[in-house]
Amino acid sequence: MDKSSEIFISFLRKTLSEGKCSTYFTKTDLQNIYTQTKRQGVLAIVWDSIQKLTTEGKLTPDQLPNKSLKLQWALSAEHIEKRYRKQLALASELSEVYAIQGIGTIVLKGLAISRYYPTPEHRECGDLDCFLVKLDGSHQDFTPIKNSHDRPVVCYDEGNQLAKDAGADVKIGFYKHSHITYKGLMVENHAFCTAVRGSRDKKQFERHLQTLLTTQPLTPIGNSKLLSPCADFNALFLTAHSFQHFLTEGIKLRHVLDWALLLNAEQNNIDWRSFYEWCDKMHFTKFADALTAIAVEDLGIEITNPAIHTHSDLKDKVLNDILYSNNAVHNTKASKFKKRMMIIRNRLLGGWKYSELYEKSAFIDTLEMVVAFFIERKPKI
């Protein structure tokens, strides 16, 4: 890890855990770190650290950001806050549309995880990922109606139509979720929480996630009708979602912070035996261990629950990939076809990610994905 990255990580540690922060840096280092914060999706969080160090009088005049950078950083952080509030307001408004029809809006990651951050508004959010379920109106709490398999009654099609009736633009093309544009808010309305094509294990995993939504409590986000899943769901979903992105295009430090802060807040509220059983079954364990090791060793998160794995021989490899690789796919302006080709390329060239982390063949896994694309257009669980 190079010098600027070490300083960068220490700034995150300062905000997340009040851990030791490096003060061996110059104005030039800060300019490089600012660039990294934008790329890693943690700009406002690192700005919090710099403000703390300044308030505590731990920075010399030679270390303080120059006027131009200070203004740029402060305005960027303010923009993130305003965008967060706007997204939350619009997401709440859309959830009201669904609530009138007895539909609950369960938030997947994003706004649901931001509540664990020291300043929720500083967690950068992209699209609103939601999973819509029918609620039992006879209960005062947010209880989903169960189907005959103890899973929630999913309101995917109804959600798309209600959004369209409310003036949103709705695009349906991908089996896992639709794309809804509601007053500028990008929404992914999920038919499935995770990718289920081409694998019995993936379908079984999806069934387990959905069962957690009906057997564990849902928590309102603030005063809105938006709902956050239970800690068990969040732990498995964040792991699966981050690992899928890690294999196909890499992830950002924002993903690691989500995991670290979930651990910090919920480590004694998660069924770790069940978590690791599912991780072993889905080949997630080594990746989850690496994220936890980064959270503990680099970000200073204190783990007191002995059931949690806190060591990983692959921690440094995973962290270096997060910091330095550049295989982004979904945030590029490439066509849909080209993005698919980029994903296949990244998978086939995954190398150690497959052999050491996933412990699967990159070629066979990619072949299964391609075959499933053609023969399982509309999967069921």
Task: Describe this entry's structure for a reader.
With 381 residues, the protein is α/β, with parallel strands linked by helices. It has 15 helices and seven strands. The protein has helices at residues 3-17, 27-40, 43-55, 67-100, 111-114, 156-165, 200-215, 231-248, 253-266, 272-282, 285-298, 315-324, 336-348, 352-358, 362-375, and strands at residues 103-107, 128-134, 169-171, 177-182, 185-190, 219-220, 226-228. A seven-stranded mixed beta sheet has the order 3-4-5-2-1-7-6. The longest helix has 34 residues, at 67-100. It is globular and about 65 Å long. The protein starts with a helix and ends in a 6-residue tail after the last helix.
SSE blueprint:
Layout: H1 3-17, H2 27-40, H3 43-55, H4 67-100, E1 103-107, H5 111-114, E2 128-134, H6 156-165, E3 169-171, E4 177-182, E5 185-190, H7 200-215, E6 219-220, E7 226-228, H8 231-248, H9 253-266, H10 272-282, H11 285-298, H12 315-324, H13 336-348, H14 352-358, H15 362-375
Parallel strand pairs: 1-7, 2-5
Antiparallel strand pairs: 1-2, 3-4, 4-5, 6-7
Helix pairs in contact: 1-2, 1-3, 3-4, 8-9, 9-11, 11-12
Quick check: average pLDDT?
Answer: 91
Shape: globular
Q: Name the helicity range.
A: 40-55%
Strand content is 5-15%
Query: What's the story with the biggest beta sheet?
Result: 7 strands, mixed
Strand order of the largest sheet: 3-4-5-2-1-7-6
Sequence of secondary-structure elements: HHHHEHEHEEEHEEHHHHHHHH
Tell me the total number of β-strands: 7
